[in-house]
Structure formats: C-alpha cells, structure tokens
Amino acid sequence: MFLKNCLRTFSGNQIRFLLNKNSIVPKYINYKSSASLSTTKLALDDQKVKVTFVLNDGRRLESEAKVGDSLLDVVVNNELNIEGFGACEGTVTCSTCHVILKPEDFKKLPEEASDEERDMLDLAFGLSETSRLGCQIILSKEQDGLEVRVPETINDARG
C-alpha cells in the first residue's frame, strides 16, 4: 500500500530524480527511460470491458477500458467530460471520483472499502449504501457492462 501511494503521489520523473539524487539507482539502469509508471495493476493482456457513467442530467457516457484500470483511469484515458472528477489524481485525498453502483454490482466487488476510502466517502455528497471512490475500483473481466451513477455534486475534501 505504501508503494502504491508513493506511485500515486510522485510522477515517474520525480521518482527517477529522487533515486538518482540519492544514488540508489545503479549506473547500469536506464533511469531516464520514458516508460511511464501506472497506479493500478499491470494489465497482462489487452482484455477490454465496457463501462457506462450515468450523469445526473441523464447523459450516459459509454466507454471501453482495459482490465486492471480503475474507474478514474477510464475517465482520464477516455477524456470523459465529468467536471472535477478525480481532482486528487487517485491519492484518496478527496471524494471527487465518488460513484454509486447498483446493489448487485456493489456486492460483486472483490474488496471492501478501506478505512481511508470510507473517511473520504463520509465527506461526499449524495452518499449511499453502494457508494465507492472510482479510483479504488479496479476493473476485472467480471465487471464488463458495469454502469455507475455519478452524483449531482462533487465535494473536494482538500479545500
């Protein structure tokens, strides 16, 4: 969990700089590589799932996502126009990626919300029994066709 939070907090270039500055990186490693760092599990294949975001005004934003992406990744990677969504970039320091799932989809989630996530959800508008933070929902093949509702208002707990 610590490493995951570090990867979410620092960009790849910042990590490379810190490692180089502190002489942690051996000279034979190409730390200047342009390879990006991911905040979610590595997708070992190109399996895709369909995800639909239902906005408060009734608009439906349908998109395709890779298995292993978070719902926040789906919004960012597909450039979905959901105002303010994911303001903290997945560091679990706001509740702007708050989504509401159908009860049957909520029960299928492999993990319960962490204490950190529950603390942020307590600050969200329109909280329900099936609320989660989109940055914490990692998509699997079983979630193909997932439909989530985006609440009317967002609350950025950072300020």
From TrEMBL:
Location in the cell: Mitochondrion
The keyword Signal is assigned to this record: no
Molecular function GO terms recorded: 2 iron, 2 sulfur cluster binding; electron transfer activity; metal ion binding
Gene Ontology cellular-component annotations: mitochondrion
Keywords assigned: 2Fe-2S, Electron transport, Iron, Iron-sulfur, Lipid metabolism, Metal-binding, Mitochondrion, Steroid metabolism, Steroidogenesis, Transport
Cofactor: [2Fe-2S] cluster
PROSITE patterns tied to this protein: 2FE2S_FER_2, ADX
GO BP terms in the entry: P450-containing electron transport chain; positive regulation of ecdysteroid biosynthetic process; steroid biosynthetic process
Principal place of residence: mitochondrion
CDD domains noted in UniProt: fer2
Pfam family for this entry, one: Fer2
Location of the 2Fe-2S ferredoxin-type domain: 49-154
Top-rank taxon: Eukaryota
Chain's role: Required for ecdysteroidogenesis in the prothoracic gland which is necessary for larval to pupal transition.
Family label: Belongs to the adrenodoxin/putidaredoxin family.
Protein name according to UniProt: 2Fe-2S ferredoxin-like
Originating species: Papilio xuthus (Asian swallowtail butterfly)
